Amino acid sequence: MTDLTDKVAIVTGASRGIGKAIALLLAMQGAKVVAVARTAEELEELTLKTQGLAIPADVADEADAEFIVAETLSRFGRLDILVCNAGVGSFNLLENFEAAEWDRIFDVNVKGTFLLCKAMVPHLKAQGHGHIVGIASDVSKRTFEHGTVYGASKYAQDALLGSLRKEVRPYGVKVSTIYPGMVDTYFNESKPGSTEAEKTHLKPSDVAQAVRYVLEAPAHVVVDELMLHPLTQEW
Where is the signal peptide (predicted)? Predict the structure, then answer.
């Protein structure tokens, strides 16, 4: 299994929920975690636990994305892992969406993934190794009522990561995509455990374990897709 000790991992959307669970687990496995989110206060609390680096930033801003990579290299001198976890969602009938809401969802879910990958990929290709993990959604593979905008963003993110996988594989860089079902977290302004239904959902720690699984897979193993099922909690 691949050893994560002293590997440098950037995790976006790390202040709470899935991102926080991923950051904590990678730190427990010995990685140096660069936690990225827009909320500085929650990031500071996290980095006290991980002894890593906190960078308050907007992943949809190109200057911020470039700063995240530059600051990581300045602090640790290397880059190994990028976990594109930051995501937002809203659900409604198509005709009830405002164009601004479309922009917000695509900015975080798609543009954010694009900008971080764009800033990081040249370094990974030059060093001949590295791993990008995208936290997509099971709606990357299906459609549902009220999911027009969010689903479209996740289909786009999935296509971006799938194409990137083929581009960087010859350079020794891996790209993995994880497709969680319903997760008991803060997504879409909900609170963990706030309803009986949410108590049957996946936990953020389940997704974190999936990330650990793909990161620790031997170099000769390619895991193209990892789907987490919300009811059975198996993958």
Answer: none
